[in-house]
Every structure is written in structure tokens, then in C-alpha cells.
Amino acid sequence: MKYLDEFRDQTLAAPLLDELRRSVTRPFRIMEVCGTHTMAIFRNGLRSLLPEGLELISGPGCPVCVTSASHIDAILSMAEQPKVRIALFGDLFRVPGSNGLSLAHASSQGAKVDIVYSPMDSLELAKRHPDELIIFLGVGFETTTPGIAATIMAAQNNNVDNFAVFSTHKVMPPPLMALLNDPELQIDGLLCPGHVSTIIGAGAYQPLVEEYGLACVVGGFEPADILQALIMLARQVGQGEARVENAYTRAVRWEGNARAQQMVSKIFEPVDTEWRGLGTIPLSGLAIRDSYAQFDAEKRLDIKLIPAEEPRGCRCGEILKGKQRPPQCPLFGTRCTPGNPVGPCMVSSEGTCAAFYKYGG
Amino acid sequence: MRVVEIQGSPDDFLSGQIAVVDADGIRKETRLDVVDRWPDIGDYLIIHAGFAIHTLEAKEAEINLRLMRELAENVAALENADGRS
Questions:
Q1: Residue A108 · residue A222 · CB < 8 Å
Q2: Which residue ranges form the domains of chain A, and what is each CATH number?
Q3: What residue ranges define each of the domains in chain B, with the CATH number in brackets?
Q4: Preferred mutation among A36, A120, A199 to probe B, highest tally of B CBs within 10 A
Q5: pTM of the complete model
Q6: How far apart are CA A255 and CA A163, in angstroms?
Q7: pLDDT of amino acid A3
Q8: Which chain B residue shows the shortest CA-CA distance from A223?
């Protein structure tokens, strides 16, 4: 495919890998923030090719993985209600709540659950099922939120009154700051997410440079993109520098996508929210503004979040903080597999445990 | 994915702002509500969950590729100078 194959070309990647080997002049650790990067690095076999001294650790950038058990429990309680139909992106379907049950179980017991490609599909469901309330599960970071904001706008413009969103949306910079405040986490730089940065802009990472002296490079998702970003990180670390650089210039600008940012600000407002493994982080979530309350499932169904225990033995929390690797979890590959997942990091196609299980550590 | 058709206009919020995109002969519709720049036919779109989030011209992808090739060529030149294959 034009402008995809070029960035996957081995004749481009091989010399970049050589340059990366040259650029690593001392041991250093990079956190790849985004779950899509985690999977791309595994899928393309990059991990096994990386030079000695460069250690990659996975961060909290898989939206399904960081959705707390209490949010999953709330979703399951909505699915049990009569005349409610849940619409969602597929990854969340098999994530267990605190009682070990998931939407997959609920669906098998008669709950109405539809997996959709786009939040706009929920409006089609609303037309097709006028006697039901369609609840779209809003799970995602800055890349996903603009489309959901646009869907709420479309629902209002078209007078769709049997549609609402359960918002567990999250934003990326606050958890990164929370992680960086943890003295146990020693990292030298961040491989910053590609498409989150398309929306928020490369400039969003400047505070991380200024406050934490961290090298930050935005990278795309093809092998050449990732290698280029790692070269830039290695050079910064080797030279003792810290700045924001953009290796994904075809998709990311310094200021981001202003139109999407405005759409999100119109519909959502920042709130404190709970992250699996990280706890509650101030202003790291997005709630639907009161002026759009009719589209807020939490208000419409009076949903209360009840504190919930994470599954016993599950180390997703430590893995999301980059403190442990999946094979260190006692459940990994035994009680917890992609076929029978205990924690969300094994369920999601972007989860670190799923990547380790599929491709090996 | 490459834009082959556009329906609606940048200020048409009610009837939908849609681009038809083509990827290896497969065509599908994508929403333009939150795209950063209104595309022209022949531009490429980055799409997430049914919504275009970024329009890029072919030349932007070419610039990105050129920078990478320059990095790669520098390495090849250095290796040749070192007498390595």
C-alpha cells in the first residue's frame, strides 16, 4: 500500500538499525508509552534486534488495560438493565470485572451487547432499536475522544434521544507525570505515542522535558518510524540532552489538531479518574459536561462507581507502571492466557501480556 | 488511505461530512468531523475508529521518507569509508 510499504522496507530499516547500534553509547531505558507501539515492536521482531544497552519498558498506554475493575463492574451493571443495549469497541468485551465475569458472560446470559467499528455505528443502533437506550462505552485516549465528541454532537443535531456515552476517557500527560514522580521508576526517555500526538501535538511533552529532564521523541508505528525515533532518543541520552523531537512529521505537528481539541473541549471537561494500577490521578479523565448531560450514561442511569478489588495475583498494575514484566506474574501463561484472561493486559490486542504471550519476551 | 470522493462541506454539520477512501481497491466511508485539514481528492487520511484525524499530502510522506533515507545513506557512506560491507 502506498506510503505504508515504504516505511516497512527492510532496505530502509536495516541501515537504521545499524545507526541505532552506533548511537547507543551507554546503557539506557526507554518507556514506550503507547500500546500500539508495544505491539508494533513485538510484531516486527524489533525487540530481539535492539542493541545491548537499550532497554524498552512498556507504559500505561493501552486504554483497555488501564480501565479499572470498578469501571468494568459499572459497565456490567448497566448491561444487566432492561431496555439497555451496550455498544463497544471489541477489546473490552472479554475484560473481567471484580467477580471474574465480563461482557462476554453477560451477553451469553441475554444482555444486549454490540461490537462496533465506530461510535457513529451506535447512532445507527439507536435508530434500529428505538425502544432501547444505546450506551456506547467511551474507552480511549486523546485519539479516540474527538470521534466520540463528534458522535455526541451528531446525536444532538439529529435529535437522537436514546443514545448515551459511558465516559471512562483518559488523557495521557497526567499519568506520565504520576509515573515520573515515582523514584522507583528509572527511565531516560519516552517514545511518545504517534496518534495521540496527532491530536495533542508534540508540544504537549515539553513540560516533561522541563520538569523531569526527560528525552521525548514522538514516533510512528512502522519499523522505520520506530527505529528513527529510537536513534533520536539514543543520541539525546548519549549527549546528555533532553528535548522534544518529532520523528513522525507526516502525522504530528507541534500544536496538534486544533479542530479535534476544540470538539473535545466543547463536550468534555477534565476530572479526576481511577487508573488500573496507578490509582486516582487528578484531572486525568474526561467527563461529559453538564450541558450535554442527556448523553451521559452515568447521569442518565445514576451509575455509582463502587471501589473494587483487582483480580487476586494479577500483576497488571505493576506491569502498567513498567515495574514488572509479564513473565514475573505468577498467573502469566498458566491461569491467565489470551483464551482465558484474568487481567486486561492479557485481553487487549495492545496489552503487554498479550504481546509477550504471542511473540515471546 | 487515499481520498477518492468527498460528500458534504466543511461548514455542513447536519448532513454529515464524509470522505470515501480507497485502500488497495477497498473503499469505505470515513467521517471528516474532526480532521485537522479539509482534504482534497488524492490526499491521504489517517483514520481512527471511523474518523479521519489527520490529512496529509503525498509530499509530507515523501519528506519523512527522505529524512530516513538520508539517515540510512549516511550510515552506508560511513561503513564504506570504514571498509566494511
A1: no
A2: 69-171+258-300 (3.40.50.11740)
A3: 2-81 (2.30.30.140)
A4: A120
A5: 0.90
A6: 33
A7: 63
A8: B68
